Please model this.
Amino acid sequence: MPSVTGTNAHPCPASAESVPIYFCPKSAALMKATTSILRPFVNIVQSRAFNSVLSLEPSGPTVKTEIPGPKSKQLIAELQKTQNAQSTAFILDVDKSIGNYCVDVDGNVLLDVYEQIASLPLGYNHPSITQVFTDPKNLSQLVNRPALGVNPTPQYVKQIEQTLHPIAPKGMDHIQPMMCGSCSNENAFKAICIWYAEKQRNGKPHTEEELQSTLLNKAPGSPNVTLMSFEGGFHGRTIGALACTHSKAIHKLDIPTFDWPIAPFPRYKYPLEENERENKKEDERCLARIEELFHEYNKNNKPVVGAIVEPVQSEGGDYHGSKEFFQNLQRIIKKNGAALLIDEVQTGLGATGKFWAHEHFSLPESPDLVTFSKKFQTGGYFAKKEFNPKQPYRIFNTWMGEPSKLLVLDAILKTVKNENLIENTRKTGDVLLNGLKDLSKKYPNLILNTRGLGTFCAFDMKNSSVRDKFTTKMRNAAVMIGPCGDVSIRFRPALIFTEKHANIFLDKMNEVVKNF
Amino acid sequence: MPSVTGTNAHPCPASAESVPIYFCPKSAALMKATTSILRPFVNIVQSRAFNSVLSLEPSGPTVKTEIPGPKSKQLIAELQKTQNAQSTAFILDVDKSIGNYCVDVDGNVLLDVYEQIASLPLGYNHPSITQVFTDPKNLSQLVNRPALGVNPTPQYVKQIEQTLHPIAPKGMDHIQPMMCGSCSNENAFKAICIWYAEKQRNGKPHTEEELQSTLLNKAPGSPNVTLMSFEGGFHGRTIGALACTHSKAIHKLDIPTFDWPIAPFPRYKYPLEENERENKKEDERCLARIEELFHEYNKNNKPVVGAIVEPVQSEGGDYHGSKEFFQNLQRIIKKNGAALLIDEVQTGLGATGKFWAHEHFSLPESPDLVTFSKKFQTGGYFAKKEFNPKQPYRIFNTWMGEPSKLLVLDAILKTVKNENLIENTRKTGDVLLNGLKDLSKKYPNLILNTRGLGTFCAFDMKNSSVRDKFTTKMRNAAVMIGPCGDVSIRFRPALIFTEKHANIFLDKMNEVVKNF
Model:
């Protein structure tokens, strides 16, 4: 495993004559033409890390035009000719964006607390990621994408051992890379169904009837098993994942789905410390219904083989569940012979102040499967060994992940470790959440239910139109922030978001709510 | 759009002192350490194209060990500790592989007619792809993966217009990139369901009942519509795609699915010219059943909103359908108010001798949607404009494709055009198919039903154990070849596979079957 951030990092000179490290020195013409474009990268590569990338940041956000500005609007109109581009916030200038600041094509510089829907752990143009693409050792891995189920590379074998295995939750020695969050959940669910059926089959091989019937989409080969999910949960948009998604109607409308059990997920009153008794009752209500649903579906020959749950319902409105809720959920699932799949696609990799958000729950044992994507750049899942199918080609596809993404993940993980970014996130999260609580006291009708773990914070507003107006005003005050659920604002900054950035944010928000 | 293969291509010097173009000239230490590894790339970058990459190839395949060899076996055993690695053929050395030849970690050099399950259009380490990763203009696009539904880049807007739009089948102006073949099919299917429901709704908005019921996975919001697929078809392995997949039981066993109509796909007798009447009857049998299934499902309130079909059933055993079959299929689908989705994930991008395989069918009009992935490096679909949902967030996910893959696709498409690779594929396909037919005459009990379009060829063997033995023997004769279906061998060489390679292949195969 090459050290991409350690002492072997490539020391590119800092002088004005220096050229980017991926650059042929003899090609003067091309060099001249591109030197000015490349200047930022030269600087980035010189700097090693966290503090250095922050030193390249602007001193704060600046607005030049309304957002989206005229250039963004023109490009959005172009895009609109071939696809639905109504969800586009603005057009991103990836060359100029740096650290916690994204820059749009109109030259607006926004403090980014959304980070491409929570998918950039180190912000923009971080040197540790740039180095992955400029390190000559990596070139052939970038150029040749293998079918990992047939022809894995020696580098991939190492990546599984040295990049992914060390971050596996305890007791989860089965590792399956995938392409994205949805397909990670789809395949983890398939792994659960296979595990469950093998238990029922008790070592016997598939029957001829099973082999024939499954090709016709019939039982017993394609059994009527079900997966429990939660009201307000989000697990992706492919048809299996979508059957477990219940955050917004527009995600699901008009698409066929399964009759699978849908359980309530706690809806707490805030502040938590003033509503302990009521919130405990809410846990009990949800847990009782979960027990009931297992009973109902199992009785009706629609066995519940597992449950999929987010540690924090992230798209659905940043709803948290208590430690006790999750501990009891695991207990009920085990009692019913089912599997617990925790979806850490949005929560994983540090933003909650722990590497995995489910570590906050002190579960008696690890979940059975944990899915990931977004900040990891690659999808995939960890699972206990019994979820690794015995036969090949059951969990399989052409690519099954991508070594080049694992190169990036390796660089990210080293940076997170070397620069104590999870500790940073805990500290910054305190500043951010306390600041939000102060603002909530100051504007109690506007800012409701402040909550969070690490920098994974949120608050609610009175209704969706107020929330949407707030999002727009913040964006025009040069802060890129995202909504979730019907009335919530979610914080998804990078792990390099520091107290300084939190304070810039809080000042900007104070200004916006003051004049709201 | 930067020209990556045209006259602006970077002219790196050829002398022994030259360094790779992505390399800092001042870092002598690192340069020394890696120069020998990088030598092939220096050479590759010097050469421009097709002929040049071929000039770097070895003169033919060579075997040093049994395959998989001892080093492969050791690494497969490592991988087996954390995942099911039984499908692994050998461990690939991507540094040493070049053009049509893949090299394994034991130093075996194999002629590759499988190309990572049909996913490498230009073979290994083609200079036009290498240049994508060494062109400094591309660095920030490689480093910063945007959420394209929220923050697309100006480069992406151009890629849609200049890379994807020019290859859209006629009349298909809606363009939606995705991540892989399965999620392309899943989302294309969603687009069909939305299109169908909007037609039924006739301009009216969603009702409150629809909005509420869909969150509970119930009708009318989640309607009981169905998608027709075909016996032997393969469309992916996520749960929606898997419901349309009927190629092998092991892909589907134990996973819940939908009661959707499954139609027969023609099974022809070969040679075609001697079985015209019988094959016409086979078309009629299939088409009659398709009509029946529409009637049955529509009558039972499970409206068939579309059908998904491969131009050649590729995973299921390389089954071809006639021009007349596809023309009539389209007619029946239109008559029933449904949509025709052609899955070109494996067939698209030239291997059949046309850019899209469905061009062979002279359909009266374009299909309604066409999905792609594999050789394109990115997934996605083209569709008629009416399949572009009116509201945002209906076809949406975090990444929605990846600009860096579109950079690679652009380089591939320019190379395919500049080097006439589709014409090459037609010519090579003639040599290959005629050679297979000659071998079939020589060994009529061993090689059955030779068939193909371009280099997308196949033949059958007596049974699966003979077929598997043949695959192993070919691999140990240094030819990487893939099976499909129960008894078939499929050819999926790169588009740079020439007559010379076809003849090397045919000689090797002749040797193997002679001693079979």
Q: What stands out?
A: Chain A has 17 helices and 16 strands. Chain A has two domains: 55-131+420-514, 154-201+225-401. Residues 154-201+225-401 of chain A form a domain with the Aspartate Aminotransferase; domain 2 fold (CATH 3.40.640.10). The two ends of chain A are 52 Å apart (CA to CA).
